[in-house]
Design a protein that fits this description.
25% strand; 108 residues; 18% helix; alpha+beta; 2 helices; globular
């Protein structure tokens, strides 16, 4: 499974208040919906194969969250980000998901 992880760029103006915002709040802010990737940098690109027995996408996202945040991610040498938290974007194959306050939102 193709995996991409995006996190907010370091040089985002803190007055924009997009760090740790929920998906709904970000979508209400002007310009975020159409320019989501403008505010993010890719911190990992590769494969995520540790999904045997997980057929539901949201279960896979939860497993990835646990693997990275509990230091079990086997590709941690090439992962250039911080732990997954609210506002992290995960790309699985060609679909993007937003780590929300509680769970995941598919970005459409």
């Amino acid at each position: 499974m193709k995996l991409e992880i995006y996190q907010l760029k370091d040089d985002i103006d803190p007055r924009m208040e997009i760090h740790l915002q929920s998906y709904d709040n970000l979508m209400k802010m002007r310009g975020i919906r159409n320019n989501l990737k403008v505010y993010y940098k890719m911190v990992y690109q590769g494969d995520y194969d540790n999904v045997e027995g997980y057929e539901d996408t949201f279960m896979i996202l939860d497993k990835l969250y646990a693997d990275i945040n509990m230091n079990r991610f086997k590709n941690k040498d090439t992962f250039n980000g911080i732990g997954i938290k609210t506002s992290t974007i995960i790309g699985l194959d060609d679909t993007l998901y937003f780590c929300d306050e509680y769970g995941w939102e598919e970005i459409v």
